[in-house]
Write a structure and sequence with these properties.
There is one protein chain. The chain has about 120 residues and is an all-alpha fold. It has three helices and no strands. The mean pLDDT is about 80.
């Protein structure tokens, strides 16, 4: 006599790939992911960010240029130093603005002095 009860039969195989045998995990070990999205060693500070900050005080145009390049590299590589690059940019732009305003003020003062026609003689 055959058994007609469906509970006594094994489950039907599912379509797709066959089931692979499982490997027991050894105690004390965790399975590592195949790809880690983070760098394995800590990234250093971007050199151009440091040059940007120092250059902003010495030669502001160099500080601005190095700051923009450093921000681009930091975004691409994940290095440290974003704050240094931004500080170099801000200081460089402010320094350049003061120099431009001083030159404009000197030109305006020279034009006013020349147009007043006053001559100083001793």
């Amino acid at each position: 006599m055959t058994d007609q009860n469906p509970q006594n039969y094994p489950p039907a195989p599912q379509p797709g790939y066959p089931q692979q045998p499982g490997y027991p995990q050894q105690p004390g070990y965790q399975q590592q992911p195949a790809y880690t999205p983070y760098p394995t060693q800590p990234a250093g500070t971007n050199v151009l960010a440091i040059i940007s900050l120092i250059g902003a005080f010495v030669f502001p145009l160099a500080g601005v240029i190095c700051g923009h390049i450093a921000l681009s590299q930091i975004k691409r590589t994940g290095e440290n130093g974003r704050g240094l690059a931004i500080a170099g940019l801000i200081i460089g732009y402010v320094y350049i603005a003061f120099v431009v305003l001083f030159v404009i003020f000197a030109i305006v003062a020279g034009v006013i002095a020349a147009s007043s026609g006053s001559s100083y003689s001793y």
